[in-house]
């Protein structure tokens, strides 16, 4: 990730933290979002800004960014329980190895990747 993208991502994370009332303890997990996504094998199907098997995280963020905390919960639930039909024919399998806390942290990080409002 380039320096400009990193700075932009950190700024978006800060705004997202304020927008969804994330505590300082959970804020640390947001900065570790890419590492958590790799550790939980999310990157096997998703990439940050390009399509793989599933949609890129930035596309997910752009679709759900306006929803605030309910969207964090919605995405966390989708991570843990899977889904189908929202992004095409390939279903997302459930990820029961991801804890509720990890799913919430991943969802908040993904939403932090949304493009700035125009």
Automatic annotation (TrEMBL):
UniProt keyword annotation of Lipid metabolism present: no
Question: Which organism does this record belong to?
Answer: Advenella mimigardefordensis (strain DSM 17166 / LMG 22922 / DPN7)
A GO term, aspect molecular function = heme binding
Q: Which Pfam families match?
A: Cytochrom_C (PF00034)
Q: Per its UniProt record, what InterPro entries does this chain match?
A: Cyt_c-like_dom (IPR009056), Cyt_c-like_dom_sf (IPR036909), Cyt_c_ID (IPR002324)
Q: Where is the signal peptide?
A: 1-27
Keyword annotations of the record? Electron transport, Heme, Iron, Metal-binding, Signal, Transport
Q: What is known about its processing and modification?
A: Binds 1 heme c group covalently per subunit.
Q: What is this protein called?
A: Putative cytochrome c, class 1
Keyword Heme among UniProt keywords: yes
Q: Which residues bind heme c?
A: 42, 46, 92
The Cytochrome c domain covers 28-114
């Amino acid at each position: 990730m380039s320096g400009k993208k990193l700075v932009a991502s950190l700024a978006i994370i800060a705004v997202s933290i304020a927008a969804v009332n994330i505590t300082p303890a959970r804020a640390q997990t947001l900065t570790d979002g890419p590492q958590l996504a790799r550790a939980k094998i999310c990157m096997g199907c998703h990439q940050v800004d390009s399509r793989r098997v599933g949609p890129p995280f930035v596309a997910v963020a752009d679709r759900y960014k306006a929803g605030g905390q309910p969207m964090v919960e919605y995405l966390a639930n989708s991570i843990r329980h899977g889904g189908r039909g929202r992004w095409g024919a390939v279903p997302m399998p459930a990820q029961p190895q991801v804890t509720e806390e990890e799913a919430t942290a991943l969802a908040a990080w993904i939403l932090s990747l949304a493009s700035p409002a125009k």
